[in-house]
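Expect chain and fold; thus:
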Amino acid sequence: MSLLAGIRVVDLTHVMAGPTCTQLLGDLGAEVIKVERIPDGDDTRRSVPPSLRAPDGSEESAAFLMMNRGKRGIALDLKKPGGKRVLERLLDRADVLVENYRKETLEKLGFGWEAVHARWPRLVYASISGFGRTGPYAEKGGFDLVAQAMSGIMSITGRARGEPPVKCGPPLTDIGAGMLLAVGVLAALLERARTGRGRLVETSLFEAGIVFTYWQSAIALATGTAPGPLGSAHPLSAPYEAFPTADGRWIVVGGANQANWERLCAILGAPELAADPRFATNAARMRNLEELRALLYARFRTRPAAEWLARLDEAGVPAGPVNDILEMLADPQTIARKMRIEVEHATLGRVATLGCPIKVEGVETGPRKGAPRLGEDTVAVLRECGFAASEIQALLEEGAVATPETSRPREAAA
């Protein structure tokens, strides 16, 4: 049983934002057919190193494997008549089309929103772009770095004003936009069940960046002042940040509400801090944040991380270690929640990947297979679309479609 059983998604996306959306839909049970261009496929196939080597000597990008597990894959040249004919057959059977090209790209090929909606009125057409389809930046391309900068994220990341701007490590706007688009697709599918009509659903990296600034935008709108970076601290509550310990490890402590603040003072053996007028209320602690931080740093440096975490857990104060990625992947909670799993790849065998963060009672969510090789499912999908063997052979000879045996990306060939 799966939540989106019977829903077919044609995935014309590449790199990260669009693939995040389609991967999430696939994790919830939709059939996702990833359409890659000939001869090179998704740009992420060349995001190396690292790569994984198969017994036959072929290599696959670890980044591509991460973003496309669970999908079927075909390779098309949409500039050739045969490639367009194949995409039309796919759309005949599809519920959702997801794309993240510049607006004019698919319009020139005859697959823009207006043309698609006129021919397939039930199809949900989902689009991600750098800045959206309207407004003065509609024609402007976008990347996560640019979106983080222009949405204000880089102005509030880092330790202090005057230092070089810092990008958040993860591509927040790519992943955020993909998740937002998936929500929009699900809403459009729900409406279609009532009306029979598909909708254009769109979002952008820029807007995804903006919604990550809820707290900071609240401050700016209320005060007329743009907040700056605070390191790991919270812009509205304290103490709520990372602290160094005696063994060199850092821990984070969420002692922001009054009850947790008072518990924290007891754990630290510092009842005088709770009684100090500078720190008696959250508003006072925020006004005196630097003084508070200095006092807490000194306290936390007196014991090792494990001892502090044990005391904080026992008292019910939210806290945790600052893990690196390998530590996170080995954490028993990660394993228990099936966020580190293995999937079967056609040439690599069992491959470790991340699981689905959405759990539903009585339903198995997450990928059923690994990422496809370039053109791995081309022939099978063409057969399902009603193409005869002679037609498939003609498409291969035209170069309109490709399989793993006929596709050889230029960089791999070099």
In short: Residues 215 and 407 are 49 Å apart (CA to CA).
